[in-house]
């Protein structure tokens, strides 16, 4: 796992624009290296701003979107098209506006999908979809070039919440019942699955995230503060605005 590094931008708007620009470069580099690219999407407010910023950048057309695989790190287990689904947000703000190959877009199942309202079966189905795309030598997961995470006020990432039993799940995808943040039923990649990504970017905006950001970078344990347990294989990048970075310790300040 890689050491965390931190980049701080003046406000949420600049943060979203910077993350969008980084994301395009990351996808371009991956396509130059591997002929294809893969991204794991997140939900939440800053993610939506990033998606809008990607679409607004002219350089978006430099990416060959037909050779991008799109996965999700977590999903709110609601009917397809529900406005609170992370998929619905990503499609309306980003995916529907890009020339992607629909076969390479991999949403997590909805609660009115083939498994009905059974999140455990839906999680198992998504695990199978991931395994079917696994690279040789990796039994359960495909290669993720970059995995995006929002950070909750409580330090949750994806739908891995503090002190939740999902921390003791050994499979890469888990159903989550009793989420402290609505809706109560969700599906998530677990931290070990998240941590197989080449790069993990934790994106946080606003003063209500400052305490969680500070604790995650200051040695909190992952069960107490899940964001502390998210790390990419080659890079772990915290992308913050000034308000979210307000309590970050001086050892990171040279990067501000
Ligand atoms: O419920 C969720 O929340 C987090 C963070 O959302 P935000 O609006 O506080 O930025 C998000 O990362 C996660 O994917 C989502 O399911």
UniProtKB/TrEMBL annotation:
Classification via CDD domains: 6PGL
EC number: 3.1.1.31
Keyword vocabulary terms for this entry: Hydrolase
Catalytic class of the enzyme: hydrolase
Pathways involved: Carbohydrate degradation; pentose phosphate pathway; D-ribulose 5-phosphate from D-glucose 6-phosphate (oxidative stage): step 2/3
Catalytic activity: 6-phospho-D-glucono-1,5-lactone + H2O = 6-phospho-D-gluconate + H(+)
Record has Hydrolase as a keyword: yes
Record GO biological process: carbohydrate metabolic process; pentose-phosphate shunt
Any GO molecular function: 6-phosphogluconolactonase activity
Domain Glucosamine/galactosamine-6-phosphate isomerase: 11-238
NCBIfam families membership: pgl
Annotated function: Hydrolysis of 6-phosphogluconolactone to 6-phosphogluconate.
Annotated family: Belongs to the glucosamine/galactosamine-6-phosphate isomerase family. 6-phosphogluconolactonase subfamily.
Name recorded for this polypeptide: 6-phosphogluconolactonase
Species assigned in the record: Micromonospora inyonensis
Gene expressing this chain: pgl
